[in-house]
Design goal:
The complex is a heterodimer of chains A (265) and B (1103).
Chain A: E1 10-19, H1 25-34, E2 47-55, E3 60-68, H2 78-82, E4 87-93, H3 97-113, E5 119-125, H4 134-154, H5 159-171, H6 181-191, E6 194-197, H7 206-216, H8 225-232, H9 234-254
Parallel strand pairs in A: 1-3, 1-4, 4-5, 5-6
Antiparallel strand pairs in A: 2-3
Chain B: H1 2-12, H2 33-41, E1 51-59, H3 77-83, E2 86-94, E3 98-102, H4 114-117, E4 133-137, E5 141-147, E6 154-160, E7 180-185, H5 188-205, H6 209-217, H7 220-229, H8 251-254, H9 265-279, E8 286-287, H10 289-296, H11 301-312, H12 314-320, H13 324-331, H14 338-347, H15 360-376, H16 386-396, H17 399-413, H18 423-439, H19 441-449, H20 454-463, H21 472-485, H22 488-500, H23 502-507, H24 511-523, H25 536-540, H26 543-554, H27 560-588, H28 599-635, H29 639-643, H30 666-674, H31 696-703, H32 722-731, H33 741-754, H34 757-768, E9 775-777, H35 778-792, H36 812-832, E10 834-835, H37 842-850, H38 855-868, H39 880-885, H40 892-896, E11 912-915, H41 916-924, H42 927-939, H43 960-963, H44 982-986, H45 997-1060, E12 1097-1102
Helix pairs in contact in B: 6-12, 11-17, 11-21, 12-17, 13-15, 14-15, 15-16, 15-17, 16-17, 18-19, 18-20, 18-22, 18-27, 21-22, 22-26, 28-30, 31-45, 34-41, 34-42, 35-36, 35-45, 36-41
Classes of the chains: A alpha/beta (265), B mainly alpha (1103).
Bound molecules: guanosine-5'-triphosphate (GTP) and magnesium ion.
Biased composition (Acidic residues) (chain B): 1036-1047
Biased composition (Low complexity) (chain B): 1060-1069
Region (Disordered) (chain B): 61-82, 857-890, 1019-1103
């Protein structure tokens, strides 16, 4: 909205959020769209749809966000939502090992089934829960890497591996963190994913994720359907735009603060 | 006004004949008659329609006062109704535990036409699925009298249970439920039969009276009426204990949602008070038109739970199993499950805006209800959205009541919604879309054009019953009607929402706008629908009221029947898409080892795996159904038999419906293999057995597991062989006696994937290295040899570069070659075997080898053999080809008695073994074996790239086997060294498992034949049973036929009457909506009216 006067090219991007139940998908979206956090957020039923704009130096990206339900059995609904998605946020909970396994499944699913060239970001959420042991984690790398190494050996997708490490974790639950930065990062690198650790609660890194995605969307894929919609639908598009803006701005106006540097909305 | 119209219209349309299509047929997934019956009257699954008869129900009218309750002596049909009370013509039905009446002319007897059974599912309009009438548990009947009237009239007077003291002239007691007078219309014989059935049921019902009393105590109506009418102070029960209101949900503590003044809660209570007083409560409630109207205008807080229980039928479930909830909780106390983990995640995320769910109390109730249900239905377990629904229920219901309502929701009202694949949800979304397309083509086209996904908005509506879409107070009003009228209500409301917002939606060109239009509409539901209207009455109509009117008036054509029809139309497509998704995901998540196999092969294995499980389950179901059928036939006449299996049966186990099985037991594994490998098919499919002596080898194995006599479906009958058992054990890495898909894939991956002779040799070796010490003993060597012959007996296509298709054309010489190779393999094994240093104990050796022996019988068989075929030629001459020519004779047993060789390895006293390197060397030394391990073995598993023809030849390609003339035995020359199996010597006369290669093969044949014979015998038996059953049924049907014909006649006569009924009701002010006109409580019709005191009558039943 800051640059609403500037006639920057604007295009919309369909983004889908996937990940295990209760990892904080809806919370991330709520933080991004309303800069708000609700500790007792109802689980998403099916999917929720929200929009938010993201200003880049050269263009405006309007995210059409599809926030999906995380429970395993809702997985069969997912194709309905990631259809035509240009970007995906695959979220896991850094305090829960199994959520990374699930995230890997989603990445694999997207790589095979979603539109080719989809930009995928892997996001480890609930960083705030690990703040205390964050310093420890830094030096702990010796201890943590042992777990990570073990995992790597057993193969990325082996559920058995996940379970065994989960058991290990039960022993040393002195630290809330159950997925090491290193492990997730190396997986993300391997699969060519954007990678962030975030906290929907504190807002840490949330804006960055979306900005990074916006930047990663290739210029070419921004044409097609979105350009058509913006240009072709005339009054209707305008009306739509107005609605969106009023809704979004209302909420965003209140607490547009630190976390969203990159995303000037 | 709206409601008035609705009711009028409703009554015009009670016409079952408008419903096309067969509904009673379960083979296409449609409900059986028994199911329709249960659905209509909301009865538990244990009930079936036993008897039915056309009848006229007479209820005392309000105004008629006391004398109306005493049928006069000279009562007759023509003056009865006109004078005294409301009467309804309808059908009276009797099930095991219930007496039901409905003005909707439905029939559930076997001969009834489909539309007659499905009648209630038609246009329900204002009258609800059951029409006017009652669902009366027989245990609530206190007394049934037969009124002696004029010749042909057969009338019953039913006095129901009353929880209160009757009271006296001066101290009025609580109101008694109405006395029901029912006039049966049918032949004398029909009436008698019905009454006999009724008497039986009533006697049974006595056992449940106590249950009923306790269950009814949880109903607010008991407290509600007692409170005002009983002479005893309301705060005390008869026994002096304090009378406390029953638990009516968290609302009593944390407030019910909404402003009760605005909701006119008091007026509604007064109306209900009157209704309950007049028409009975909980068990004895009689549904009259007012009942439906009172529900449409929204239930009052305190009675909401009770009426939900009654209209959904969960009350009857609770009545049957009142302890189920508590027992389930107790039984699983402290146990964990996946569902419980999932529930915990969501406890704090359920209606967080309601204060009760910020409290430990509320969360605790929610936890217990969800947990208990997850245990009673582990297939559903827990699904997100259930937390929201249950949280909502708990505002009005006690924990235990909510539990039963949840059961009804998941099992009956929302089938498949919360299942692991959520097929019900997906299916209903598809149905909803097609209804939108049909009823609002313009909106539909707009959605399609703009690529807006309707289900994104509508899926949560259905899944959470509008609870998290609409403000709570309105969602509850939808629920009120939903429980009464069934799932179609969700569709009607959904369509109405779109219709009302049609214009705005047509302006929306993307999902975002579409969603925000609807969001803002929901937020305005409480506002006036016509804010600018001059007419204050119009202004008073809220958006929600308008929504209800559109839903039930404009979309009254959407009936349960429409929904079922659409469901069956879209079902297969939905299931297929779920299955293909599940397949993709499951294959992708099989783990790294699976990458050794091609995606095609994995897909093939996936299909084969689940097809086998699915088909087996089907067969089991059928067998079970057959058993049940017989049991039922023996016991009683049940219409379910006529209509076939219970609905879901034909699809049980189908993956998209939440396959209950994902593990393969040993038999399933055999069946699985028979579809991928020729050698796993038995040599002697279902042909009768003549000779049992040969089966010895197997009787032992058969005895060790439950004998499975089920036929193998259409597929080839699998073989049984020790090799299969070993393979199964190896693949079963978790050691739980069953294989998952992953186990199968991981088992096959090294065989099919490695394609490297060395690993294939060690794979095989390990199969036989039982203790994993890298050695295989003498016994093991023999078994390996047997296995090699077993595997090669149909030829091995892989070793030669033949295509897989020419199974039949495999040259016999190849097989001879193979036999020769195996023979020399055995010989060499013993040549190169190393003495077993660690084990010197002969006895132990002997014991080792006994494990599979079948002593006595085998001994006999063996002697016979010996007498027929005295001697084998010298051991050294490896005459391979002749083995082939002498199929059924050669055994190790016969040669064992000869002392053959000086080779120490053959000395039974000195145990020996071969090691992997030895084994490898021996294999590599033989071209044929080398080729077998190089590719033959791997290729014998036919996956996607070279599947087996579906109708694989079941007689062995290897012809010599069972047909060769025994005379050619002269050429018999099994290599000598095999002969002296130590067992025989060690345990005199006992033939060990090493009885012989050919013996094994022969036994496979004979055993297979024996099993086949057994199967045939059982099938014949089943057929006979079936025929017998059919004939019994036939007679019963005949008997019914004449009864039925009359019933139909009557039914047609009654229809005219049904058309007349609305005339009596339209005047009823329907404006409860606007002006709750409430009369003061009337003080008639309490229990004092002793009906029939002066009527000549006989008591049929009394307690
Ligand atoms: N401490 C902490 N809690 C979080 C964070 N993000 C989410 N949560 C909490 O985690 C729970 C689940 O959050 P949701 O955003 O509803 O999770 P979801 O992934 O959308 O869950 P589903 O809709 O069920 O798939 C809520 O109780 C949140 O308050 C975070 O960054 N830090
Ligand atoms: Mg969510």
């Amino acid at each position: 909205m800051a640059d609403s006067s500037a006639p920057k090219p604007s295009s919309s991007v369909k983004l889908v959020l996937l990940g295990e139940a209760a990892v904080g998908k809806s919370s991330l979206v709520l933080r991004f769209v309303n800069d708000d956090f609700q500790p007792n957020k109802e689980p998403t039923i099916g999917a929720a749809f929200l929009t938010q704009k993201c200003q880049l130096p050269t263009r405006t990206i309007k995210f059409e966000i599809w926030d999906t339900a995380g429970q395993e059995r809702f997985a069969s609904l997912a194709p309905m939502y990631y259809r035509n998605a240009q970007a995906a946020l695959v979220v896991y909970d850094i305090t829960k090992e199994s959520s990374l396994v699930k995230a890997k499944h989603w990445v694999a699913e997207l790589q095979r089934q979603a539109s080719p060239g989809i930009v995928i970001a892997l996001v480890g959420n609930k960083l705030d829960l690990c703040e205390d042991d964050e310093e420890a984690a830094e030096e702990e790398s010796s201890g943590a890497s042992a777990t990570a190494a073990a995992d790597d050996e057993e193969g990325e997708e082996s559920e058995a591996a996940a379970e065994s490490t989960e058991n290990n974790d039960e022993g040393n639950n002195s630290t809330a963190r159950k997925v090491s930065l290193k492990e997730a990062k190396s997986y993300a690198d391997e699969e060519n994913l954007l990678f962030f650790e975030t906290s929907a609660k504190s807002g840490h890194n949330v804006g960055e994720v979306f900005t990074a995605i916006a930047n990663a969307i290739p210029e070419t894929s921004l044409k097609g359907r979105n350009a058509g919609a913006a240009a072709g639908a005339g009054t209707q598009a305008a009306l739509t735009g107005a609605n969106e803006n009023s809704r979004v701005n209302l909420n965003a106006a209140s607490g547009d603060g630190g976390p969203k540097e990159g995303c000037a909305c | 006004m709206f409601l008035q119209n609705l009711v009028q219209k409703a009554q015009q349309f009670i016409d079952p004949a408008v419903l096309p299509g067969p509904l009673g047929n379960s083979s296409n997934g449609r409900p059986s008659k028994a199911q329709l019956f249960r659905h209509q009257f909301r009865l538990p699954d244990s009930q079936s329609p036993l008897y039915e008869i056309t009848a006229e129900l007479t209820l005392p009218t309000k105004k008629s006062g006391n004398d109306a309750k005493s049928p006069s002596k000279n009562w007759d049909k023509s003056n009865w109704d006109r004078d005294r009370g409301t009467h309804h013509v309808g059908q009276l039905h009797l099930s095991e535990q219930f007496l039901c009446f409905s003005t909707v002319q439905t029939s559930f007897v076997s001969t009834a036409s489909a539309s007659a059974s499905a009648g209630f599912t038609g246009r329900t309009h204002g009258t609800g699925p059951a029409g006017n009438g009652f669902t009366l548990p027989l245990c609530a009947v206190r007394r049934v009298e037969r009124l002696h009237t004029q010749s042909y009239v057969f009338a019953l007077s039913i006095t129901t249970w009353n929880g209160y003291d009757a009271g006296t002239e001066t101290k009025p007691g609580a109101p008694a439920p109405p006395k029901l007078t029912i006039q049966l219309e049918g032949s004398r014989q029909q009436c008698e039969r019905f009454c006999d059935g009724l008497k039986r049921g009533l006697r049974q019902g006595i056992k449940e009276v106590e249950n009923m009393r306790t269950v009814a105590q949880d109903c607010y109506s008991e407290y509600f009426l007692y409170d005002e009418f009983d002479a005893v102070p309301a705060t005390e029960k008869a026994d002096g204990t304090a009378r406390a209101p029953p638990d009516t949900g968290l609302g009593t503590v944390f407030k019910y949602p909404g402003n009760s003044r605005k909701l006119r809660d008091r007026s509604k209570m007064r109306l209900w008070h009157e209704y309950l007083k007049e028409h009975g409560r909980n068990t004895t409630l009689v549904r009259q038109p007012d009942f439906h109207r009172l529900i449409r205008v929204g239930l009052p807080n305190l009675l909401r739970g009770e009426i939900w229980e009654l209209t959904s039928g969960s009350f009857y479930l609770r009545l049957q199993k009142p302890k189920l909830y508590q027992d389930t909780l107790d039984k699983f106390q402290g146990q964990g499950s996946l569902a419980i983990d999932e529930i915990e995640k969501d406890l704090n995320r359920s209606l967080p805006e309601y204060a009760g769910f910020q409290s430990e109390e509320g969360i605790g109730r929610l936890r217990r209800v969800l947990t208990a249900y997850s245990w009673t239905n582990e297939e559903v377990g827990y699904c997100q959205a259930m937390n929201i629904v249950v949280a909502a229920l708990l505002i009005y219901l006690s924990e235990s009541q909510a539990f039963y309502v949840l059961s009804i929701l998941c099992d009956r009202l929302l089938p498949g919604y919360y299942s692991t694949t959520m097929y019900g949800t997906l299916l209903d979304q598809r149905v909803f879309e097609s209804l939108v397309e049909k009823t609002m083509p313009i909106i539909w086209d707009h959605l399609v054009k703009n690529d807006v996904q309707l289900s994104v908005v509508s899926l949560p509506w259905f899944l959470s019953l509008y609870i998290n879409s609409m403000p709570l107070i309105f969602a509850f009003r939808v629920l009120d009607v939903f429980f009464l009228e069934g799932p179609k209500v969700l569709f009607q409301i959904g369509l109405a929402i779109l219709r009302i917002n049609g214009e705005e939606l047509l302006d929306a060109t993307d999902d975002g706008t579409f969603i925000s239009v609807l969001k803002s509409y929901f937020a305005r539901l409480g506002e006036s629908a016509h804010p600018k209207s001059e007419n204050p009455k119009h202004r008073a109509i809220t958006n929600f009221q308008a929504l209800m009117v559109v839903a039930f008036k404009e979309f009254d054509g959407i009936t349960q029947h429409t929904i079922s029809e659409q469901r069956s139309k879209h079902k297969s497509a939905v299931l297929e898409s779920i299955e293909s998704f599940a397949k993709r995901t499951s294959i992708r998540n099989l783990g790294p080892e699976s990458k050794k196999l091609s995606t095609n092969d994995l897909g093939f294995l996936y299909d084969r795996f689940y097809v086998v499980l699915y088909e087996r389950q089907q067969r089991m179901e059928m067998i079970q159904a057959e058993i049940d059928r017989k049991a039922k036939l023996a016991k009683q006449r049940a219409s379910e038999i006529v209509t076939g299996l219970p609905t879901n049966t034909p699809e049980m186990g189908r993956l998209a419906l939440g396959a209950s099985q994902t593990q393969m037991d040993y038999d399933a594994f055999r069946e699985f293999l028979a579809g991928v490998a020729k050698w796993a098919v038995t040599d002697s499919p279902s042909s009768p057995m003549k000779d049992f002596s040969g089966g010895n080898y197997f009787t032992n194995t058969l005895r060790n597991r439950p004998i499975n006599t089920s036929p193998w479906g259409n597929g080839p009958e699998p073989a049984e062989h020790e090799f299969l058992q070993r393979l199964f054990k190896k693949w079963d890495i978790d050691g739980n006696g069953a294989l998952s898909l992953q186990n199968v894939v991981y088992g096959l991956a090294p065989i099919k994937g490695n394609r490297d002779i060395m690993s294939s040799i060690s794979y095989f070796f390990e199969l036989y290295d039982d203790d994993g010490d890298g050695k295989v003993d003498r016994e093991g060597v023999l078994r390996i040899s047997e296995a090699l012959l077993f595997l090669s007996r149909r030829g091995l296509t892989g070793s030669v570069s033949h295509g897989p298709e020419d199974i039949d054309k495999v040259l016999p010489s190849k097989d001879e070659q193979f036999l020769g190779a195996v023979s020399s393999f055995i010989r060499r094994c013993f040549e190169y075997a190393e003495p077993d240093k660690t084990e010197v104990d002969n006895a132990a050796d002997g014991v080792d080898l006994l494990d599979l022996g079948e002593k006595d019988e085998t001994g006999h068989a063996e002697t016979d053999d010996q007498s027929e075929h005295p001697k084998s030629p010298s051991p050294s001459s490896a005459g391979e080809s002749s083995i082939l020519a002498r199929p059924s004779t050669n055994t190790f047993g016969q040669t064992k008695s000869r002392v053959v060789s000086a080779n120490a390895a053959l000395d039974p006293a000195s145990p020996v073994h071969i090691t992997l390197p030895t084994f490898r060397m021996l294999v590599l030394a033989d071209e044929t074996l080398e080729s077998f391990f190089d590719s033959g073995f791997a290729n014998s598993f036919h996956l996607a790239d070279a599947p087996l023809p579906s109708n694989i030849v079941t007689s062995p390609a290897y012809l010599g086997l069972s047909h060769a003339p025994p005379t050619s035995g002269s050429g018999l020359s099994i290599p000598g060294p095999i002969g002296p199996t130590p067992v025989g010597i060690a345990s005199g006369g006992v033939v060990g498992p090493g009885k012989g290669l050919r013996g094994v093969l022969d036994n496979i044949v004979t055993d297979g034949m024996r099993v086949a014979a057994e199967v045939r015998r059982r099938m014949d038996e089943a057929q006979r049973e079936l025929d017998r059953g059919a004939s019994t049924r036939g007679t019963e049907d005949d008997e019914d036929d004449d009864g039925e014909e009359q019933a139909v006649d009557l039914l047609e006569g009654a229809e005219a009457n049904a058309g007349a009924t609305p005339a009596k009701t339209p005047a009823k002010p329907s404006m409860l909506l606007d002006t709750p006109v409430v009369g003061g409580p009337r003080i008639e019709s309490n229990g004092k009216a002793r009906a029939g005191s002066d009527v000549e009558k006989s008591t049929m039943f009394e307690r």
